[in-house]
Fold this sequence. Notes:
The protein is mainly α. The longest helix has 27 residues, at 142-168. It is built from 6 helices and 2 strands, in the order H-H-H-H-H-E-E-H.
Amino acid sequence: MTWTAPELEPTKTLADGAERPMLQSWLDFHRQTLLGKCGGLDGEQLAVRSVEPSKLTLLGLVRHLTDVERSWFRAWAAGEPLEPIYYSEAAPDNDFDALDSLSAEDVFAAYHAEVAACDAAIADLPLDHVFRAPWRDTGYTLRWAYLHMIEEYARHNGHADLLRERIDGVTGSF
């Protein structure tokens, strides 16, 4: 039997309340939106590229965002000594290039594990917690990282919309 990405229901966002739960609800919404765009597709479909010369694929986006979450939340904000999962200095585009390095099912399992680890790593950090990314001397707050990740997902979810439509014509929230 061929593995397919699970079909999901959209996550609701908070319309009011404390800042941290609202930020988390929007991040969770965008996480779920990306996975929802992948719902019902098999590994081969998830690896369909958009158009030349682009290397974008739905599977590549899941891989990319796994590493982006890992970097911003665990490695930099929480200070865990971690390396990226998919890319390296020697192969900076491997999140989009080396799609056959793991099965789609394993990529999705790694994504879910990383998201859970990221949420746990920052759970006790205040939004005003300041950290540095290794490539820039500017301090960032955890609040900034939440906003950046929401923006990162929103941008890539637009890409996912177009990729999904190319694969099977599906459009809409998911």
